[in-house]
Here is the input.
Amino acid sequence: MADALLAIAVSALVLGSLYSLLASGLSLIWSTLGVFNYAHGAMLVVGAYLIWALSAQVGLPVLVAFIAAVPLLAVFGILLEFVAVRPLLQRHNGTLLVMVSTLAVASMVEGAAQLVFGPQNRQIAPVSDVVFRLGSIPLAATSVIGFGLAMVLILGLMVILKRTEWGASIRAVEQNRQMALLVGIQPKRVYAAVFIIAAVLAAAAALIYGTTTTITPAKGFAPLLTAFVVLVFGGSTSLLGTIIGAFTIGVLEASTTYFFGLQWSPVVVFIVLVVVMLVKPEGLIKGRTA
Here is the structure.
């Protein structure tokens, strides 16, 4: 039983790190712009392929490839906001239009990745070959590094939101866009900054995802759905709730996979989603992102 608990904990560590990064980016965009970014999964795929190409094809060390991929993915985030979000956000039914446009971007990215990289499974090399032992359960150093990176970025985001001028601007636009304009804050700049932050978080998620499983052009949709479940479970406007929700869902997925098999994991997760929406639709923690 001890080995089972350790195996579940190790798997939940990886899944929770991945989902906390993805869901934090979604939460930030949702609370600031009031839209759901369906292209966030595509951003994960783009980041994973960038890291893979820079490491496997160019020959850079994986961490260096990740660092090099971050500004490239940030550019993708800026272009996504400028092309698919900004022109539609203030129109009638803007929220629906943005959802459709980001979904279209996700489809285009999947098709482009298919043409450029092909349908073959790719995998990013581990950051480190070191493997620790917890009893009979292996714990890869790459998983520990991924967990540490996720926590540093999310805690850094919390500090930015609460302690910096940019964070104050984000919170002001989130609370009242018109009042923010009156005090000299430019919402368009804030929106671009939010997408850059979400892209950085997605790049870190791509590193974790690509080193623990194979990547294909179509593999961004499943993590996106789970990140959405995390938002509902933890509270779509609370970063603390997002982190708690991410690791709770990670434990749930790991436990279900270990005891019942991989095919039952999404079933149980979405049962939990339905129950939470019926019993506590605001999520575990109700509040704003900050």
